[in-house]
Specification:
Blueprint (H helix, E strand, L loop, with lengths): L21 E2 L6 E8 L4 E6 L5 E5 L6 H12 L4
Antiparallel strand pairs: 1-2, 2-3, 3-4
């Protein structure tokens, strides 16, 4: 006699979410937040710990991660 086989669950891989806070290049703490204003085309990047702040120009299709990357590049003097 054969046995009944249970249904197998198909596990889908979880989608990774983008972080809300980033690492500060000046103080090294994870306290940098990014506020995006798409109408003006700018993003305000601020560190809650050391107070480092900058406005970064962004395109309409760019996200918070892109604004943070531009901020870090500008901090280290790469462009």
């Amino acid at each position: 006699m054969g046995r009944r086989r249970g249904r197998r669950r198909i596990l889908k891989p979880r989608r990774r979410k983008l972080p809300k806070f980033f690492k500060c290049p000046a103080c090294g703490k994870v306290s940098v937040s990014v506020k995006v204003n798409r109408q003006k085309g700018i993003a305000v990047v601020t560190c809650g710990s050391c107070g480092l702040s900058e406005e970064v120009a962004i395109d309409p299709f760019e996200d918070k991660v892109d604004a943070y990357a531009k901020f870090v590049d500008h901090y280290y003097g790469e462009s």
